[in-house]
Write a structure and sequence with these properties.
The protein is an alpha+beta fold. It is 36% helix and 22% strand. The chain has helices at residues 21-48, 70-99, 105-122, 126-145, 163-184; strands at 188-195, 217-225, 231-239, 245-254, 269-271, 277-285, 294-304, 307-320.
């Protein structure tokens, strides 16, 4: 009679026990961190080579553009496909190495996609989104990828996502959806300042804590940079005034922050490659809002390569009306 010893710490394909949530939490977190790092390195390399520039600050690496139309929506979907393919593949490898067996590539990517992007809809703050994604994704992997007996689910061969089809999907998403939009919408915000008395921004002056009253004025300043091509700016407006902040005047300057909102370079304004476009707006609070008002973005209309385009650029730090009396 012979016996076969199986290590209790390394489940194999015949182990009837379902992987525990704690095990999947550790492996999925490892995959998410490694996948995000790979994504950041790749995107930084493309930006350094002047091929494609996207916002890599905070959670913007997973959703770099504000959706304000069909084109930005398509580009965002294409970017999400790349994100899920990179992070999901690494999550699959880390979980598979610990649980044994072969996990469904399509089901794993589906769990990672839902777990990663659903928090963007249901959570408002970046911290809440990170926590939700970290906790929900392992649960989805447990439910979607594994059956009740602990064995990996395997859909029909015709429905499974093969490496060849995944690679083709990533290439099409990158070349057809992401690259054209990113090349023609290169503007990134690299600073925004608000003076009295807005601000969750640490650059605010004077310090946060002042009370804003109806009729008070606020000056908000932000700076944007294009990519390697020159653009001609034709119009600028701030997004997220909530109907309670009236924009009295907008000033634009190249490379230097406006000392006062009255000193401005009129539009249209020619912006050469890598020059900074400084935008300063003077706003008036017309009434106290029921909820804090957030200036989320600035919308810039411009001409590039003979095309009339527009881009809604998120401010690098949201600017909130914290108090009102």
């Amino acid at each position: 009679m012979s016996t076969v010893a199986v290590s209790a710490g390394s489940p194999d394909a015949s182990d009837p026990r379902r992987p525990g949530y704690g095990l999947l939490l550790r492996r999925v977190l490892l995959g998410q961190v490694c996948g995000s790092l790979c994504l950041w390195v790749a995107a930084s390399a493309f930006a350094w080579l002047s091929l494609v520039r996207v916002n890599l600050s905070g959670l913007s690496i997973y959703a770099p553009w504000i959706i304000d139309g069909a084109w930005s929506a398509a580009a965002s979907v294409g970017w999400a496909v790349i994100v899920v393919a990179v992070i999901g593949s690494i999550v699959r490898a880390t979980v598979q190495a610990r649980t044994g067996g072969t996990l469904s590539r399509g089901l794993t990517l589906l769990a990672v996609a839902i777990g990663g992007y659903a928090p963007l809809v249901f959570a408002a703050s970046s911290g809440a989104r990170i926590v939700l994604a970290a906790l929900v994704t392992p649960a989805l992997v447990l439910i979607v990828v594994f059956d009740g007996s602990g064995q990996p689910r395997h859909p029909a061969a015709a429905l499974e996502l093969s490496p060849r089809w995944l690679a083709a999907l990533v290439v099409v998403s990158a070349l057809v959806l992401v690259a054209p939009f990113a090349v023609l919408h290169p503007l990134l915000s690299f600073t925004n300042l608000e003076t009295p008395p807005l601000g969750s921004n640490p650059n605010s002056s004077p310090p946060v804590g002042n009370v804003l009253r109806p009729g008070d004025h606020v000056q908000v300043t932000t700076a944007l940079k294009p990519g390697d091509a020159s653009i001609t700016v034709t119009a600028v407006r701030f997004v997220g005034t909530g109907g309670v902040l009236r924009v009295d005047q907008i000033a634009t300057r190249v490379n230097t922050m406006p000392a006062a909102v009255v000193r401005t370079t009129p539009l249209p304004l020619r912006l050469n490659a890598w020059q900074a476009l400084w935008i300063s707006a003077r706003l008036t609070l017309t009434r106290c809002p029921a909820r804090p008002v957030t200036l989320t973005a600035v919308r810039v209309s411009y001409r590039e390569f003979g095309l009339s385009l527009s881009q809604t650029v998120p401010l690098d730090d949201n600017t909130n009306v914290l108090a009102c009396a």
